[in-house]
Amino acid sequence: MPPSPPRSRPANASLSKSEMSNSAASSSTLEVTFNEDVGRVISGRYEILGVIGEGGMGVVFEAHDIQVDRKVAIKLVRRECLQDSKFIIRFRRELEVTAQLRHPSTIRVFEHGECEDGRPYMVMELLTGQSLSERLEQGRIPEIQALQFAKQIAESLSEAHENGIFHRDLKPDNIFIETVGVSTVVKVLDFGIAGGVDALKLTRAGEVFGTPQYMSPEQCNGQDLDHRTDVYSLGCILYEMLEGKPPFSAESPMATMLKHVRAKVPTPRNASPVTAKLLQFALRKDRTKRIQTAGRFAELIGQAIGAARAAEEGRTVHVPDLAGPSMHTGPFASVPSTSRQQAAGVPGFVPPPTGNPNLILAVGVGVIGLLAILVWVMTRSGADPVPEPTVDSKLPVEVSPEGLPKNRATIRANIEAANVQVDGVFQCRTPCEITVPVGDNRPHEIRLSKDGYIDVVQNWRPLTVTDPPPLLPDLKPIAPVVEVKTSKKGR
Fold it and tell me: Does the CA dihedral 264-268-273-279 come out positive or negative?
């Protein structure tokens, strides 16, 4: 739970008992419980001064560290949660997880222990500033600043992922913007449900953690998660910083989650072509085709910052290769492309060189010299012209799907009238026949979908027109009961 600036006057240690009673008359029972801790000294060192905020796992107080004379934030487990053993295990895991991390963009944990009444606590740095959700209430964020924020978040996540930890609940409420001198530092908070091998053991089958607007498709489907779920969530946050709203939102959490699984991402209107392409990679629904690591995401964001600055200043824009050899692009809803024709509209754009100019010049000179020698030899000897080289028919040749033979296969599913898509294009409803080109040397994606069921995806590259279709798993219903963490304004 992130420490955030109090939205109202925090409880004060100097309040009398009568004042506390008057305050309690207009407060909830939980707030009374919070105020009971104000004025206490924990472990003979931390004097609690007031309430900063509260979350699902505990309460965060502002405190004075008597030993080193500094203000800190202390997170205490709620008293009513002491009987929940799984809850306590998760809180202690948060202590262990956050204490391992040292990146400047991850909140620092100084110490942790237990109060006299057995409640675990952890002592963190006290941040001053505002959460990203509070900043977004003021409007969208300029592109370069949004990219700089996202880069710091990606770097923090990269360190966590390297330690076998993934966040699983990344959202604007869990990101804090702090001004330190002339610098702005972004902090990632609340690793309370951070994932990993140990965390998965604490999750019951069918439980889904996260906040719907920022959940990855695999998270919405209740599948096993890895670090790439954080890459998708950060993509959603970057999109919201640029556009002022998340890519997907609906009237209910379930409807929002279904959009993450099936709907195309709306076109970003306030992003340069390079940043739009970056979002395209980050928000791939198939995690194997997404940006694969937070470290790579941070690197690509850095390149996007350079391109955005160059365009803003009217300098030459070199469009970076965001894909790389192992990346695949995915469809936005009419996302602006970064092709040479479209990128030519960027001020100062010059197509990047396709190779080393010195090497190209040297090769050209060598070829001209070789041709001159061949002409001289043929002139001197009267030899027949050098025959044209033959093409090795075994080499792969790129071909167009038009004119290729087609494999016509019948697709069946355990559910009638399931939608069948081939390479993202709807073809029919089961049971039905699809056509797939043969001989184009690439796999084709077959997707089965139906409302209320988890999509099934299988790749197929038929080698002949008689190859049978791949065996498709059964469509399974989405779990009817979903535990969803919703963001709370009172923190």
Answer: negative
pLDDT in tens, 191-204: 754 444 344 333 44
Neighbours of 50 (CB within 10 A): 19
Sole residue written with tokens 């790579």: 296
Q: How far apart are CA 136 and CA 130, in angstroms?
A: 10
Cα separation, 300 vs 290, whole angstroms: 13
State the pairing for strand pair 432-437/444-449. unpaired
Whole-angstrom distance, CA of residue 322 vs CA of residue 293: 13
Helix (H) or strand (E) holding 58: strand 58-65
Q: Tokens 């409880």 map to which residue? A: 11
Main-chain phi, psi angles of 422, to 5 degrees: -120, 120
CA distance 315 to 320: 15
Closest CA to 333 of 245, 264, 435: 264
Could you give the angle at which helices 143-162 and 294-312 cross, rounded to 10 degrees?
A: 160
What is the identity of the amino acid at 86?
K
Q: Look at 35-39, 134-138, 184-188, 218-222 and tell me which has the smallest mean pLDDT.
A: 35-39
Kindly calculate the radius of gyration of the chain based on its CA atoms and give it in whole angstroms: 29
pLDDT digits (tens, 9 = 90+) for 264-302: 999 999 999 999 999 999 999 999 999 999 999 999 999
What the block records as the tokens of 192 is 């309370």
Phi, psi of 33 (to 5 degrees): -60, -40
CB 127 within 8 A of CB 121: no
Nearest one of 288, 290, 294, 297 to 265, comparing CA atoms = 290
Task: Spell out the domains of the chain, with CATH numbers in brackets.
Answer: 17-125 (3.30.200.20), 129-343 (1.10.510.10), 406-460 (no CATH)
Give the Cα separation of 342 and 211 in Å (integer).
36
In total, the chain counts a number of residues equal to: 491
Cα-flanking dihedrals φ and ψ of residue 108, to 5°?
Answer: -90, 140
Q: Annotated catalytic sites, by residue? A: 169
227 backbone φψ class: left, alpha, beta (φ>0; ψ -120 to 50):
alpha
